[in-house]
């Protein structure tokens, strides 16, 4: 039987609320049409200036290396629905509507599949700081079992405390507001593959103590506890787009 997790404190690394609140992002996962991935990347790169002209922040993005079936993930900063769809922003977008339509027309020729998730996460400055200088990413997407959404978020926070005790970079946590079936996704940030793999030689006793201090029944129970909360999850390793 699982023990109750330790209480979540205000000092948790990069905290997010249990329910929809915080900074809003539109997260788009895209699979390119066969043989068109580089064309798709070039199209998104060419469109960056158009976001800025409309008063919108360009997305954070990365490219699939191995794992899930998408090729690109783009995280568009929205702040909130009220801010994103405010009158001034709508007027600026209307002034660039022709450019946006042309972009969408090109996009339909290059994309085989795409899906949107609206999710709350850390403040924009925190996300930007974590992306800065990083070139390798671990993206985990989770669908919670019915009634287990809050417990899943707590588990992700507990795992961040475990990482923090081992001087391992914590993950950013994002919580579904609407869109795709993903309830929670996390992003880990690393300089490269070697940085991602660092710390694999930590002694078992150190890992186990860190896991228990974070609220788990032991380091060997981190994964089983997570599995008890989810219907499915997808892991993806991704790289920075140059």
Task: Please tell me the overall pLDDT.
Answer: 90
Can you name the CATH architecture of the largest domain?
Answer: 2-Layer Sandwich
* CATH uppermost class of the largest domain: Alpha Beta
Number of strands: 8
Tally the structural domains: 2
Which sequence of strands runs across the widest sheet?
Answer: 1-3-2-8-5-7-6-4
What name is given to the CATH topology of the largest domain? Alpha-Beta Plaits
Instruction: Give the biggest sheet.
Output: 8 strands, antiparallel, barrel
Shape label: globular
Structural class: alpha+beta
Can you describe what's shown?
Strands 1-3-2-8-5-7-6-4 form an eight-stranded antiparallel beta barrel. The protein has 242 residues and is an alpha+beta fold. The chain has nine helices and eight strands. It has helices at residues 37-53, 81-84, 87-95, 97-110, 124-131, 149-165, 193-197, 204-214, 222-227; strands at 23-32, 60-66, 72-79, 111-121, 136-144, 172-179, 184-190, 230-239. The model is unreliable at 1-18 (pLDDT under 50). It folds into two domains: 23-121, Alpha-Beta Plaits; 136-239, Alpha-Beta Plaits (2-Layer Sandwich), CATH 3.30.70.
Write out key terms for the chains shown.
single chain, 242 residues, alpha+beta, Alpha-Beta Plaits, 8-stranded antiparallel beta barrel, 9 helices, globular, disordered N terminus
């Amino acid at each position: 039987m699982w023990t109750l997790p330790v209480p979540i404190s205000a000092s948790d690394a990069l905290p997010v609320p249990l329910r929809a609140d915080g900074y809003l992002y539109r997260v788009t996962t895209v699979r390119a049409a066969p043989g068109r991935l580089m064309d798709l990347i070039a199209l998104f790169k060419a469109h960056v200036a158009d976001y800025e002209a409309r008063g919108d922040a360009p997305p954070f993005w990365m490219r699939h290396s191995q794992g899930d079936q998408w090729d690109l993930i783009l995280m568009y900063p929205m702040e909130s629905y009220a801010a994103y769809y405010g009158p001034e922003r709508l007027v600026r977008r209307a002034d660039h509507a022709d450019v946006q339509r042309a972009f969408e027309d090109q996009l339909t020729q290059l994309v085989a599949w795409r899906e949107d998730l609206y999710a709350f996460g850390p403040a924009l400055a925190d996300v930007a700081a974590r992306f800065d200088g990083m070139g390798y990413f671990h993206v985990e997407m989770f669908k919670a079992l019915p009634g287990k959404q809050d417990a899943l978020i707590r588990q992700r926070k507990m795992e961040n405390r475990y990482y923090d005790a081992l001087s391992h970079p914590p993950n950013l946590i994002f919580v579904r507001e609407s869109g795709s079936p993903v309830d929670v996704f996390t992003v880990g940030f690393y300089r490269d593959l070697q940085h991602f793999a660092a710390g694999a030689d930590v002694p078992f006793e150190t890992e186990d103590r860190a896991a228990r201090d974070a609220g788990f029944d032991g380091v060997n129970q981190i994964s089983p506890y997570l599995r008890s909360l989810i219907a499915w999850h997808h892991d993806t390793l991704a790289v920075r787009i140059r």
